[in-house]
Specification:
Blueprint lengths: L1 H16 L2 H9 L7 H12 L4 E4 L6 H11 L4 E5 L6 H5 E6 L4 E6 L6 E5 L6 H13 L1 E4 L2 E4 L5 E6 L12 H4 L4 E4 L5 H12 L13 H13 L4 H15 L13 E3 L3 H17 L7 H12 L4 E2 L1 H5 L4 H11 L4
Parallel strand pairs: 1-8, 1-9, 2-5, 5-8
Antiparallel strand pairs: 3-4, 6-7, 10-11
Helix pairs in contact: 1-9, 3-11, 9-11, 10-11, 11-12, 12-14
């Protein structure tokens, strides 16, 4: 009985703490037509302290979305265009010699912002990718002998073009694993695209929106997300989903065994739990339900499962595997 009272109180608290979510969605919709799914995923990453890998064709408002979101949160935005000649110093900064003072001073790079758009991350060589990924993981940067903490909230949105693969440096599996979510963006619907044309012709996509939230509110909201209640049955459900990708035969999915070269890592379980809590927060609820886990599962898992040549030959994707796992693993 005591637990239910606690959950009720927690539910009311989360309902109050998450009021700003509607303000952000309303502010971003003034500039962006459709793409509500992408905005929601950006908020998920922001609240769960994760980073996002976005895969989609050019022209689908990836830059505009993160720029608009940073304006709504009154945060600093930085865009880095990844190219083959980029150096780590171009991202994190470097030491510059000052002849008048006869000393080296630190010049900070574009990584020192709240929202980083790493455009076409697979266009830059491994050295540059690892410089960004280290900053994402450690949330600090070392220039010369000094270490600098990065601002909070800190969100990296890295993009990849799924079609052009010539002259690219694909992210290794271990580095892909560091992204909490991999989100696939598709074309807008016909009516949404009609709205996009109208807004663009009226110049509304260029308008600057007013901040509706302060960065401090986001940090406070993260604390609320941590408090969201997750039942042991939900924890078991998350573990069963991840373990089914490692040992499919134990879950009556023996036909998947020849298609999977490796399953989700412990990071998959951690991020699935974090993302489910953040999803519950976005839905203004103080506890996690199985539907929260299912809603975020594909975005959390699709880049953490390796598929074999056999799966590729049969045109079976990671998404197909996750769908089959979700349809088979028992829901609490």
């Amino acid at each position: 009985m005591e637990t239910s009272v606690d959950i009720e109180a927690l539910n009311q608290q989360i309902f109050l703490d998450s009021a700003f979510v509607d303000d952000i969605k309303s502010a971003t919709s003034k500039v962006i037509v459709g793409q509500g799914y992408m905005i929601e995923r950006l908020l998920l990453g922001l609240l769960a302290k994760g980073h996002i890998l976005l895969e989609g064709l050019p022209g689908l408002a990836k830059t505009l979305s993160i720029k608009t979101l940073s304006s709504a949160i009154d945060a600093k935005f930085s865009r880095i265009q990844f190219t083959p000649d980029l150096l780590p110093a171009d991202i994190i900064g470097t030491m510059i010699y000052n002849p008048s003072k006869n000393e080296f001073t630190v010049r900070k790079g574009p990584i020192f912002a709240n929202f980083i758009l790493a455009d076409e991350i697979n266009r830059a060589p491994a050295k540059v990718q690892s410089a960004l990924l280290e900053a994402m993981q450690e949330r600090q940067v070392t220039i010369g002998k000094e270490s600098f903490k990065l601002a909070e909230p800190f969100l990296v949105l890295a993009t990849q073009n799924p079609i052009e693969q010539e002259g690219t440096y694909p992210l290794p599996e271990a580095q892909m694993d560091r992204f909490m979510l991999k989100v696939n963006i598709t074309y807008p619907s016909l009516e949404e695209e009609r709205g996009i044309i109208r807004k663009t012709l009226l110049g509304e996509t260029l308008q600057k929106i007013d901040a509706v939230v302060k960065p401090d509110q986001i940090l406070k909201a993260r604390e609320s997300v941590d408090k969201i209640y997750m039942d042991e049955k939900i924890e078991s459900y998350i573990l069963n989903i991840v373990f089914a990708t490692r040992n499919p035969q134990d879950y009556g999915l023996g036909d998947l065994a020849p298609l999977i070269s490796y399953g989700g890592s412990p990071r998959a379980s951690i991020n699935l739990a974090k993302a489910a809590k953040a999803y519950a927060f976005l839905n203004r609820r103080g506890y996690v339900i199985p539907e929260d886990v299912r809603s975020v599962c594909k975005d959390v898992m699709r880049h953490r499962i390796g598929i074999t040549y056999e799966a590729e030959a049969e045109n079976i994707t990671q998404e197909d595997i996750v769908t089959k796992v979700l349809n088979t693993v028992e829901v609490p």
